[in-house]
Design a protein that fits this description.
This protein is of the alpha+beta class. It folds into five domains: 42 residues, no CATH class; 194 residues, Lysozyme, CATH 1.10.530; 80 residues, no CATH class; 66 residues, LysM domain (Membrane-bound Lytic Murein Transglycosylase D, Chain A); 54 residues, Membrane-bound Lytic Murein Transglycosylase D, Chain A (Roll), CATH 3.10.350.10. 43% of the residues lie in helices and 14% in strands. The chain contains 20 helices and 13 strands. The protein has a three-stranded antiparallel sheet with strand order 1-2-3. Helix 3 crosses helix 11. The radius of gyration is 26 Å and the shape is globular. It starts with a strand and ends with a strand.
Length: 462
């Protein structure tokens, strides 16, 4: 395969020479026709600018040489990526549009997920961000997206899209500018605030551009470019051949260990349909102890599942259970059946010594604390997950297994006691209707500084 330029009608047209192309695509009758299919028009700067001005709605679509470079990337250099995104948009865009409308957000924000994940619900980055909207673990937990060895709701198109809409709405409310809100979605609001301060308190993306992280400088231009590319794919001779349509589904509720490939086999249904409908299920099974999990099933199977429920649930409840539990207990970084404690690094500590002390593996400590190497520093706090029969050493301080909303009634007030690692943002997310400003007002706080054990009034007692 190679590119060559052909002069046609006074303008340049790129042509990709392709061998053995499927000539039935788009009703092509001969190899000659297939070559014409891959002509890539060299659209002028002025034409693209005009097209973007028509597409622009609530989110600005500023056209710059940087944006033009990414448009060339999506329409010339990586056309396959753009085609795949356009095919998958048939499946995911209706979901995005539903939640964007629910939260009164601009519909064009649906294109943002393409930059995040390429519309791959199981995409996982090197930094641990996952799903269509690429939530890192901490942000996912902030928006109540459950994560464990079996289930990761960051991969759930519905739950993650709702969380992304809430987050985008909060960012826009704070910055009052969609380009800055998008930049903050990528790098975090703190980095955008820093860029604003370093720029002399300018308030537009292109005014603070040079002060943003390198990845964020490209993020907004990529968003504009992919929005253009999908809306004008045909003008660039990119045609959708295999649209990825949604699978019609219904739900059944499961409250037991459940091996999904066994169910698919019993129903004679393609397992890929279950995976497509339930990408958040990481191991093709639901764990023991799950409560009323809403399992999406192809709509034509629901009646049979209800009719043969006892047999199907019993069969799916036996296969692979011991093997998966063994894998869960022994996988690197597993927390299955373990209690979390915190170890404060002392002078002379190394990961090997700490691992021996708590009877865990060095690789586990790295995974639990997202360490890329063996470097640790004095005073650093390390999360260690130990087996229940471990006798905790003097340096280990127990902390809660998971962060849960916990409050008590005191003198007619509802009070939250600050836990290790809590911030006002975290606490405001734990209680419905609570905001950072309300916490400050109720407790006469002049800043956001809080400390473990501190009681905070969060409202009137129930």
């Amino acid at each position: 395969m190679g590119f060559k330029k052909v002069l046609l009608g006074g303008g340049w047209i790129f042509c990709v020479a392709i061998v053995n192309i499927n000539c039935h695509a788009r009703n092509l009758d001969s190899p000659e026709d297939s070559i014409l299919y891959e002509f890539i028009p060299d659209v002028t700067y002025e034409v693209i600018e005009s097209r973007l001005s028509i597409l622009e709605n609530e989110v600005p679509l500023n056209f710059t040489p940087k944006v033009k470079g990414f448009i060339d990337y999506f329409t010339i250099r990586n056309r396959d990526y753009t085609r795949r995104a356009a095919e998958n948009a048939y499946f995911y865009f209706p979901i995005f549009e539903k939640y964007l409308k629910k939260h009164n957000l601009p519909e064009e924000l649906k294109y943002l997920s393409i930059i995040e994940s390429g519309l791959n619900p199981r995409a996982i980055s090197r930094a641990g961000a996952a799903g269509l909207w690429q939530f890192v673990p901490s942000t996912g937990r902030m928006f109540k997206l459950h994560q464990d060895w079996y289930i990761d709701e960051r991969l759930d198109p519905y739950e993650a899209t709702e969380a992304a809409c809430i987050y985008l709405k909060e960012l826009y409310t704070y910055f009052d500018d969609w380009e800055l809100a998008l930049a903050a979605y990528n790098s975090g609001p703190g980095r955008v605030r820093t860029a604003i301060r370093r720029s002399g308190y300018k308030k537009k993306f292109w005014e603070i551009y040079r002060y943003l992280p390198r990845e964020t400088r490209s993020y907004v231009p990529q968003y504009v470019a992919i929005l253009y590319a999908l809306n004008h794919a045909e003008e660039h001779n990119m045609f959708i051949e295999e649209p990825n349509f949604q699978v019609s589904y219904d739900t059944v509720h499961v409250s037991q260990y459940f091996h999904i490939p066994t169910l698919a086999d019993q129903l004679n249904v393609c397992m890929d349909d279950f995976v497509k409908l339930n990408p958040q299920i990481m191991r093709d099974a639901l764990p023991e102890g799950v409560k009323d999990f809403a399992l999406k099933v192809p709509v034509e199977t629901r009646e049979r599942i209800i009719t043969e429920r006892l047999f199907l649930y019993d069969t799916a409840g036996k296969v692979g259970k011991k093997e998966l539990e063994y894998q869960s207990r022994n996988s690197v970084g597993s927390t299955f059946g373990r209690d979390r404690i915190v170890h404060r690094v002392r002078s002379g500590d190394v990961l090997g010594k700490i691992a021996m002390q708590y009877r865990v593996r060095v690789s586990d400590i790295r995974k639990w604390n997202r360490l890329s190497g063996n470097l640790i520093r004095v005073g650093q706090r390390l999360n260690i997950w130990v087996l229940p029969n471990y006798h905790k050493g003097l340096t280990a301080q127990p902390i809660a297994k998971t962060v849960q909303p916990h409050s008590v009634n005191l003198n007619g007030k509802k009070v939250h006691y600050v836990q290790q690692g809590d911030t006002l943002w975290d606490i405001s997310r734990l209680y419905e209707g609570l905001t950072i400003d309300k916490i400050k007002q109720l407790n006469n706080l002049k800043n956001s500084s809080i400390k473990p054990g501190q009681p905070l009034v969060i409202g009137e007692a129930d």
